[in-house]
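hiii so um. not sure if this is the right channel but i have a protein structure encoded as tokens and i wanna go backwards to a sequence. like what aa goes where. can anyone help
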């Protein structure tokens, strides 16, 4: 950690709270993240939020190519030093969440995302990859522990939510490592965890992915209300139409959205599509 601190001080770098910057300094942790991600010399990696480049260097030593994104241009001299000598790294100073992903993916091979993500961009970033990417094969991302629990949750639990169901349509998520807050500089207020999401397109049969996303949004519109009420409010259905849709999908009349598995949500989305409630 002292070595990282010295490099940052040398280049006059100051942490910016709005970017949620907490850099990894522990060598064992860096190696374990790379190992857990399953990267080989044939893997193209997209790293989002490369920070001071400690994880970037570990990735580059294991991967074929690394595209490292960061929003903070003040890191340029730091990265020039920490990534010196690496020819398979391209640093891109852009906000990944605002990236034209189709245009970017047209220029690169299928890839794996590895990232140490600040809380404020985690869900928007994962959502962007789920909805827009054609080439991402998997994610190995370090997030706040409570967010990791949410990504991997099962239905009918407090942690289960719309992002859980969105991930389940495209891939399976599991926590592969718990990480103490003491392994970051500066030290954050919470512990983290590494979540691995392996993409398997078509793992849940659904007629239209957009219809599924609309159904998920409706299901979690108000967790305290029944799914019937959410259907009425979200899609402007009559109560009779909502009841009929639930029966057709095999859902109990008084069920809440959070009790439905992703498979059952997919069935409901098909029903809503077939009866013209969702128009595509």
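sure thing!! here u go:
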């Amino acid at each position: 950690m002292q070595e990282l601190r010295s490099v940052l001080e040398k280049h006059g770098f100051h942490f910016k709270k709005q970017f949620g910057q907490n850099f990894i300094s522990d060598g064992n942790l860096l190696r374990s993240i790379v190992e857990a991600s399953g990267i080989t010399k044939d893997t193209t990696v997209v790293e989002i939020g490369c920070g001071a480049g400690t994880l970037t260097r570990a990735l580059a030593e294991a991967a074929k190519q690394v595209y490292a994104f960061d929003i903070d241009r003040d890191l340029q001299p730091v990265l020039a030093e920490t990534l010196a000598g690496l020819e398979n790294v391209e640093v891109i100073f852009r906000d990944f969440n605002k990236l034209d992903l189709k245009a970017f993916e047209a220029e690169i091979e299928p890839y794996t995302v590895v990232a140490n993500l600040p809380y404020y961009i985690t869900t928007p970033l994962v959502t962007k990859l789920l909805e827009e990417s054609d080439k991402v094969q998997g994610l190995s991302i370090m997030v706040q522990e409570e967010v990791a629990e949410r990504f991997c949750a099962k239905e009918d639990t407090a942690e289960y939510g719309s992002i859980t169901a969105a991930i389940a349509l495209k891939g399976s998520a599991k926590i592969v490592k718990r990480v103490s807050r003491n392994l970051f500089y500066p030290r954050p207020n919470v512990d983290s965890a590494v979540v691995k999401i392996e993409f398997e397109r078509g793992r849940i049969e659904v007629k239209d992915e957009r219809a599924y996303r609309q159904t998920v949004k409706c299901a979690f519109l108000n967790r305290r209300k029944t799914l019937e009420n959410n259907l009425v409010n979200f899609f402007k259905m009559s109560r009779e139409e909502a009841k009929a849709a639930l029966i057709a999908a095999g859902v109990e009349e008084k069920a809440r959205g959070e009790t439905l598995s992703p498979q059952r949500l997919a069935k409901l989305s098909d029903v809503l599509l077939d009866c013209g409630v969702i128009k595509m």
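oh and The two ends are 53 Å apart (CA to CA).
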